Every structure is written in structure tokens, then in C-alpha cells.
Amino acid sequence: MVCPGALASAANKAPVQTTCLIPNTYGGDEMDAYDAADHEVYVSVLSQSKVSIYTTPCTLSTSLTVGSHGQQPYAVAYNPSDKEVYVTDVKTSVVYALSGSTLTATYSGFSDPYGIAFDPKLNGMLVSNYGSNNLTFLNSTGVSGASIGVGAAPVGIAYDPSWNEILVANSGSSNLTVLNASNPWAKPLGSIPVGTTPWQIANDPASGLDYVTDWGSNNVSVVSGNLSSNVSSSIPIAPTPRADPFGITYSSARSSIYVGTGRGYVYIIRGVHVVQKFRVGKNYTLDGLAYDSSNHRVYAVGFDGTLFVLR
Fold it and tell me: Three-class SS string for the chain?
């Protein structure tokens, strides 16, 4: 474990507190999620078939192997109902359930599960199946109900509390599918066009707006779940020609959206304006961002094996 201390950007006062090296990784760190019950951050290590668990910045609690070597843990989400963390595996099309450092269950019945999110109305997880263009509902008893049809190649999922909706980013059809969070099996409420190859979604509960990273068109789409009068804006993400926006999360402490890119930049957005941009290092791909609501930190995972802790 290496913890060199604070990073700083004289040009833009980057709010980077700490940078850590995730041990025994050689690229392939993907997503992260915050466990509000145990105050831990879970990081999927795709290249090592592991999930690393941090209790504080740069303090590795444990590194848990999921499946055999060669598996590819990807998306991570916390379920506050059963207090477990769920991790999708895009190679074997399973979902792991973790309680602390214990693997409690492995669920099958998915197809390239690239996204996962908690549905508070159903107290369970919705999993996006990239390979079959649908969602699967999962709770502690296993897969439940029929599959839920969405757009092409779904990835990111988010809950919009303002409208009691589930939004699904369809990377293959460049739109969002809008579902009733209380009954996602019903006919979709509608769809919202966004940029090219939408990947992840974050909701700003204060404004009621939803933010989508469109890495194919190099922008962030800002939309409202109010389908009768949908507000839509597009925020360009520089530098050009490509910045590749991927990871995204909401910070309640700063009332801002954080966006991580494939060029090592972090953008902070309020409303429809970029209020700050800074670089955390070289060309890190920042695929996963998660917010620590206890300490008001944002964790950004670099694909090369680096965990950045931001204020």
C-alpha cells in the first residue's frame, strides 16, 4: 500500500485529498460503491477477479477473491435493505452478494450484466443485461419476476426520487428507458434521447435533474424525469478531440455532480455548468465514482490500479 499524500493543482485547486495504489493490480480496476452501514468502500478489480474493501482512505481492509481467476467483476452497488454489496461479473454473467468481507451468495440468470442499482420501492436490485437488452430483478431470495425489456445494450441504472422512476442508459440506442420504480415490469413510461453511447447515470435530488455520461459523443446529458415537460441540455466535456466521460456520482456536500473521464480529468457540474475541472494524474480512465455520505468524500477508481479520494 502506497499513500503518497495530498495531490494539488495550482491551476485549479483540485480537491484531491489522497491517492492510493491498489495492491497487486496491473490495470483493470473498474467500479466502486459505498457501504453506508459499515462505512466501507468496495472496488471491483476486474483484472484480478477481486473486490478490494477500504475502511478509510488508503486503508485496505481486505481483498476478496470472487470466483476463479479470470472472472471479471464490474459494477458494484449497495443495498441498504439487506445491507449487502452486490457485484456483477461480466465474464460469467453472475452477480455476487457480499456482506462485509464474506461472499454470501452467487446468483446466475444474467447476460453480460454491466449495470446494477438499488430500487428503494422494491427493496431489491435491478441488473442491466447488456447482452439481452433487458433488466433482471434480484433480491436476497434470488432472481424474481420476468425480465424487463429496455433499449439496446443497457448499462447504467439510476433511481429518480422526484418522479419515482428508474432510468436505464441504453448504450446501443442512445437513449434512456424510463420505468415506474414501483412496478418496472409495467409498460415503460417512455424514453428520453441523449448523446451517443450513454454509460452511467446520477441523480441530483436537490434539483430533480438526472445526468448521463455519453462517452461516445463526449458530453454529459442533463435531463428531467418529467416526461410531460422534459428539460434536456448537453454539457461538452473537453479536452478535445476525446475526453471519454465514464464515471459519475452526486455529492450532497457540494450539491454537485462529479464526472470522471478517460483522460484523467474530473469535472464538477452544478446545474448545467462546469464549475471546476482538474486532472488527478496522467491518462487514468476514471470508470467508477462513488460518494461517501459519512465523510463527504468522492472515491474515483482509475483503471490502472489507483484510488483517488476527493473532497
Answer: CECCCCCCCCCCCCCEEEEEECCCCCCCEEEEEEECCCCEEEEEEHHHCEEEEEEECCEEEEEEECCCCCCCEEEEEEECCCCEEEEEECCCCEEEEEECCEEEEEECCCCCEEEEEEECCCCEEEEEECCCCEEEEEECCEEEEEEEECCCCEEEEEEECCCCEEEEEECCCCEEEEEECCCCCCCCCEEEECCCCEEEEEEECCCCEEEEEECCCCEEEEEECCHHHCCEEEEECCCCCCCCEEEEEEECCCCEEEEEECCCEEEEEECCEEEEEEECCCCCCEEEEEEECCCCEEEEEECCCEEEEEC
127-165 pLDDT tens trace: 999 999 999 999 989 999 999 999 999 999 999 999 999
Chain segment 194-215, per-residue pLDDT in tens = 999 999 999 999 999 999 999 9
Provide the domain limits for residue 230: 16-310
11 inside domain: no
In a domain, 3, yes or no: no
Q: Is residue 49 in a domain?
A: yes
CATH of the domain at 262: 2.130.10.10
How many domains are there within the chain? 1
For residue 10, being part of any structural domain is answered with no
pTM score? 0.91
